[in-house]
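Predict fold of Phosphoglycolate phosphatase; 220 aa.
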Amino acid sequence: MGMGLLAVLFDLDGTLIHSLPDLVAAVNRLLESESRQPLDDRTVMSFVGDGAGTLVSRAFKATGGMPGPEVGPYLERFLADYEPRSAESTRPWPGVPETLARLKEAGLKLAVCTNKPSRATDEILAALDLERWFDLVVGADDAPAIKPDPAHVTCILDRLGVPAARAVMVGDSANDILSARAAGVRSVALSFGYCHGPVAELGADWVIDDFRELSHLLLG
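Predicted 3D structure, encoded as tokens:
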């Protein structure tokens, strides 16, 4: 096995899938319900990656401030609307299914490590027929802490029975690379995801420009 790998961990939004259209639509439906102006794609993208609660909070703060003292009720409304519609426009990046198939056929254990709520994660993976490739999926509500906390990564490694030195994390943001590094895991950054700054500055071990490069990189 190339690099002595046993497992590959993947972020979800911006890494395996282009989910921004559905996220933007759900955010703007919530804002409209509170008589707020809609946000454009680039603005919403800059809010993605730190969990749904943070996304909702940032959206309201960008349009005049939180309408109430707690984000909880608005997060519940957002998720109730978003989860059943989370795969209307969401699609895998080009090459994702084929690459996952190649890695799986090579004997690697595959896992999803995402700050997205678990129900929405499961809905999307099932709708896009991606769930069959994964041995384990750990969303925000299944992890002891979310990325960039390394506990999100280490809990997956523990459940897979794989040491950090024999795993790699694939992601598109600072949270992915920071959590991997803190857990002692090598990392691959994608140049085409939802990164909030220059990908070259994330500090990943490798950067790829096309998802299909991943199997060659990892399998040799």
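The radius of gyration is 17 Å.
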